[in-house]
Amino acid sequence: MVSVTARKIREHGADRSPAGMGRVYSGFLISYPVVGRGMVIFRDPHGHRMITTPVKRVLGESGSEMIYVETENSVYRLTFHGAPLVPMTNPATGEAVS
To answer: Model-level pTM greater than 0.70?
Structure first.
């Protein structure tokens, strides 16, 4: 689990709405994004969470401060803040994510 800020930078689909563009989600990323699964970010201490549509691809280097996550509906830029509270690994490479 790591503190993260996710900014929506693109929406896919015919019914795109500019209202969600640039929206920022801050919270804790539970696990490194995995292709085929929704990404989960817990947003506050009251249990609210954001769950995306399934991830299509993850762009960026493991261990870097920022990655891009493309889901079925959107693209997010994730910025990591500090070290993970619980060690996370990139399932594609098996490397630890810092």
So the answer is: yes
